[in-house]
Sequence to fold (289 residues):
Amino acid sequence: MKIYINGRLFAEKDAKISVFDHGLLYGDGVFEGIRTYNGRVFMLEEHLHRLYRSAKAITLNIPLEKDGMSKAVVRTCKANRTLNGYVRLVVTRGVGTLGLNPFVCSKPQVIIIAANIQLYPKKLYEDGLKLVTVGTLRNHTESVSPNIKSLNYLNNIMAKIEAINAGVMEAIMLNPQGFVAEATGDNIFVVKGDRLRTPPIWAGALEGITRNVVMGLAAEQGYDVREETLTRYDLYTADEVFLTGTAAEIIGVVEIDRRIVGKGAPGPVTRRLANAFRALARSTGVPIL
Ligand code: PXG
Fold:
């Protein structure tokens, strides 16, 4: 595998970053996870917009314009023939001292890894996911905004640990007001009849790119799609619940806190949207070759 670091492609064994990089020392940096389908980078522009917004929010100056970054992503995918894969784009604060001050760091490091991913097992999509709501709250918007896709994912990792300890794979995180925010690396949707609801951004959800695509597809298909504050009660009493994210795409939820969701299998709305999403993903994006 060839890894991009600051404009150069390195063999995997030579792709190295300093132990004084604040990305490592403090989780000081931002990232994106992007998919390639059928030789195209899916929603690249949207991912880059979010990356630059995250960077701006933490006063990190990315040493490349968006256009240059777009070319770097495509170049890395091409070098690895990542035609159906996963791209991790990371920008760290760079090399600094053993102190928090980010302004002493030399210059941000840009890292791009293009991998041929292992998808979630097919069975998970057929059977659906079991979830629990956990005690770890999503970050308060004025602590670290959930809209910053930062390299510090401890908030989400703590929630994931709780879920795994409870015997399921994924957690639902609530915000400090007790409303549903999102899963640890996915957004959440609730279906009731022909109504689709997802928590608003202010409630602690990352503005997921898959979320936005799914909201558009669902509206096109005639569903009444809206952002709405959701409580655990809304989840327990939904016809269907599903998660959306770059890695998972769309995945049905069949159990939450030991309550069976709907009929206990991924429902028809979930399946219909998942099919529409896959069709779109296969046919759009920035070409790699
Ligand atoms: N919420 C959080 C906290 C996320 O990190 C999403 C929602 C979904 O957003 P997108 O834009 O992907 O629809 C994310 C995205 C990984 C991985 O390797 C995580 C994400 C994306 C890609 C890979 O765990 N998180």
Notes: The pocket of PXG is lined by residues 33, 156, 182, 185-187, 206, 208-211, 244-247 (CB under 6 Å). The longest strand covers residues 29-37.
